[in-house]
User: What shape does this take?
Amino acid sequence: MARIGLTILTLFLWVFVAGGYLLLSWREASLTAGLLALQALIAAAGLLHRREAKTAAPWGDQLIAWLSALLPLLLHLTQETLPGKSLNLAGLSLTVWALLTLAKGRAFAIAPADRGLIAIGPYRFIRHPMYTGELLSVLGVVFFGNLTPWNLFLLLLLMLTLLRRIHVEEGLVSGYRSYTYLVRWRVLPGVW
Assistant: This one.
């Protein structure tokens, strides 16, 4: 019963976030806000349609995953530049593609868990495309127009929490070791 209540609460959170971004998208004719709304709606749908987890991360790692997912919402954004907007849109597009792929495979979750290995879509090229997209997006908006100590702190915290999520996920998902032979790069092709 507690799990159902938590799922409902999480669903309302993502629908609320999506509604805020949809309103912003409509009011400011913002493609970025529209993609963020789509991202939140896919997350909500993915929560409703997901497979039961075979194994789940410990509570501490689940909290780190939630912190990681919510950190970008705390960025202070004051201006957009063309390079920043371009990286942001590229990152958001990759994130949406990865989310759609996870939702289709019924494997979406915020907290690390084994809901089956996904090796289609962007997961054929990099092992953690959703995190790559998030980092591209945040790097774009922070380094091209919004470089503040607060945003740098959030970026560093995001990077640390994503590293932890990657480590935990790679240890939980069945068949992950074999997957690493098929897809070499975790986040950035040619680098890591």
User: Anything to note?
Assistant: The radius of gyration is 16 Å.
